Amino acid sequence: MGRELAYDPYAFSTLDGIDPDAFLIAIYRVEAIGGEEPSKVAEALASETTTGTWLRVPTETDGIRERSQGKALGVYEFPAEGGSRKFLAIVAHPLENFGEGAPIPMIMTGIAGEAYSMASASVKLVDLIMPKSLLREFKGPKFGIAGLRDLLRVSDRPLVGAIMKPKLGMSPREMAKICYEAAAGGADLIKDDEMQSNPPYCKREERLSAVMEAIDRGCEESGKRCLYALNITDEVDEMPEIAERMAQAGANCLMVNYITAGHSILRAIAEDPSIRIPILAHPTMARALARPERIGIGLPVLKKLARVCGADIAVLSSPYGKLHQTFGEYFWSVQALRSPLGGIGASLPAIGGAVHPGLAPRHVGDLGVDFAMIAGGAVLGHPMGPRAGIRAMVQAAIAAARGIALEEYARDHEELRAALERWGIPG
Predict the structure, then answer these.
(1) 154 and 125 assigned to the same domain
(2) Predicted confidence (pLDDT) per residue in 278-334, tens digit
(3) Are residue 155 and residue 86 in the same domain, yes or no?
(4) What is the pTM of this model?
(5) Cis peptide upstream of residue 300 (ω within 30 degrees of 0)
(6) What order of strands is seen across the sheet that includes strand 71-78?
(7) Is 224 a catalytic residue?
(8) Which of 287, 300, 321 is nearest to 125 (CA)?
(9) Domain range spanning residue 63?
(10) Count of the separate structural domains present in the chain
(11) For this structure, is 132 an active site residue?
(12) Which end of the chain is more exposed for a tag (fewer CB within 10 A), N or C?
């Protein structure tokens, strides 16, 4: 093997020195513990996530390392305090390492599985660059933003949705009553709470039957269409059959808790040709991965993976609401869902978490109109009831999309006026 070099030549390259279609590129935010040299940490990161172990073994030949070892493409240090060293490390993972068909469990194993075990550094995966050769393995959303707008016949404003509250405890009949009011008020979407799956007092089949009948009556009054995102999260081996059975029973939208159930089951259901209805991806438990500053997986990465796995609608938190959400993660999560991504269609961001009509101008100012505002408290807690709550949300969405001040639009719309009197317009 010759003299051992200070830096492993097989662990490094330049960004323009690799075939970009043969690698998945991961971007990590790293803090070196004890002030270790960033390039050595990046070398260890590239090695530990691919071919290496804690010492060079004879079976890890130069040929194997040249073919299969990750490549550190760049290390970009920025100022840090207290003797630590902070930097971005860009690491290219050979696509062939993941196996045929781009299995998500192996992609996650490669880009994140061992990265957090390093004793020399704290690591957070903040972005993922997927080459076209990889993206071709995925089908993405069946409907996406354009298909949802065609389906709902809404083209010029943010979509508006209601969330079932309380999270748990209601019977199918009680849920149906709320859904009727929301649909009659003009909701584009009504979704189960992430906790509402299949409890004995509100079985999934009974809930679907009662809710869809109520929504049909409400839609006859409103003159528009409304989706109901039925939560089918369950044991993963049962979910494909549940999805097919619910679609055959009249469901017009399905909901999957894609972090707790896994991206792969979202993909399996979305790519099933017998499932011809939109899928809403809920990120419950994502904060366990994304919220820690020094370790974990950033929300934009999770949203991008949800999109390629087939989410037509992806829920994320408002930075102006009750849930922890930085503006940067919110903004870049939306970009991950909507920006061009090979041939993958755009997913609709659904913004929730203490959203109310007064926030519509902020969200439209941030995102344009291609998103949904979804609310539980602001719909069910409206002083005039849930039908008025949805109407207020729709009115706010229309006003914001047209650039009309909410106070002005509220003069002729009592539902919006009552909502603004209750929750105001944040300054």
Answers:
(1) no
(2) 999 999 999 999 999 899 999 999 999 999 999 999 999 999 988 788 999 999 999
(3) no
(4) 0.94
(5) no
(6) 71-78, 85-94, 23-32, 121-129, 296-297
(7) no
(8) 300
(9) 9-135
(10) 2
(11) no
(12) C
